[in-house]
């Protein structure tokens, strides 16, 4: 990539981040990301404080898993809605005319991944504080899960961005982005369950090689579908 291409990518990315600061969508997705953890927070508030060390560890892992799953959902919803809206409203077409196809798409995915990482970090930090408050300090997510939050959010943002590139209608893109992620909670057969996108976030079993690679494999599959569909449909 030449120097002019890099300048165009930086310019397109800066323009996208400026638009993000004016959009309340990230706040809405941040609020929605807490939904999976709300039942657990309610249950923690009803504890009488007599919690053993093993129970505290188990509850902390469950809370961390719920927060990370919510982060993935929130980041995916944000990336999907932003990308589909950009196609539907013509914003992406304008960026393509101003900066070129590659800079416009790179800027879109950089913004989605970065916003997802920030959203996930905020969800886990705020959720950890609420968990400690509701349980009077007895239940806290483990440090390893907190460190993983930006990676989960980045993954979710890219997932949503790819779904938005494939399904370019804001009304339907949430079903395409969140539907496959929701399957994990409905599948009971272990062999299929560990191949789901968010299988590595499950606390019911030790993560396997399949569950660890499933998320990346699903992203690559979506990338291939987005590339093929993009070749058949013009951006403008």
From TrEMBL:
Keyword Protein biosynthesis: no
Residues that span the membrane, as ranges: 25-46, 66-84, 105-130, 142-162, 169-188, 208-228
Domain of life: Bacteria
The UniProt record lists the keyword DNA repair: no
Keyword terms: Membrane, Transmembrane, Transmembrane helix
Residue ranges the record marks as coiled coil: none
Record-given protein name: ABC-2 type transport system permease protein
């Amino acid at each position: 990539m030449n120097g002019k291409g890099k300048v165009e990518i930086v310019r397109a990315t800066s323009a996208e981040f400026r638009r993000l600061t004016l959009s309340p969508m990230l706040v809405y997705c941040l609020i929605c990301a807490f939904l999976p953890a709300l039942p657990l927070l309610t249950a923690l508030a009803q504890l009488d404080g007599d919690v053993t060390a093993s129970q505290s560890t188990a509850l902390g892992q469950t809370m961390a898993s719920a927060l990370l799953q919510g982060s993935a959902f929130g980041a995916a919803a944000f990336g999907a809605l932003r990308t589909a809206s950009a196609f539907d409203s013509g914003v992406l077409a304008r960026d393509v005319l101003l900066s070129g196809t590659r800079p416009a798409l790179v800027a879109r995915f950089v913004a989605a991944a970065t916003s997802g990482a920030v959203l996930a970090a905020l969800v886990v930090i705020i959720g950890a504080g609420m968990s400690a408050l509701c349980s009077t300090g007895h239940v806290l997510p483990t440090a390893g899960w907190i460190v993983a939050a930006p990676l989960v959010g980045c993954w979710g943002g890219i997932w949503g961005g790819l779904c938005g590139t494939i399904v370019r209608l804001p009304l339907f893109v949430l079903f395409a982005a969140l539907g496959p992620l929701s399957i994990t909670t409905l599948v009971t057969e272990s062999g299929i369950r560990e191949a789901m996108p968010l299988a590595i976030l499950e606390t019911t079993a030790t993560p396997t090689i399949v569950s660890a690679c499933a998320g990346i494999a699903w992203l690559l599959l979506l990338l291939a579908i987005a590339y093929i569909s993009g070749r058949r449909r013009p951006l403008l």
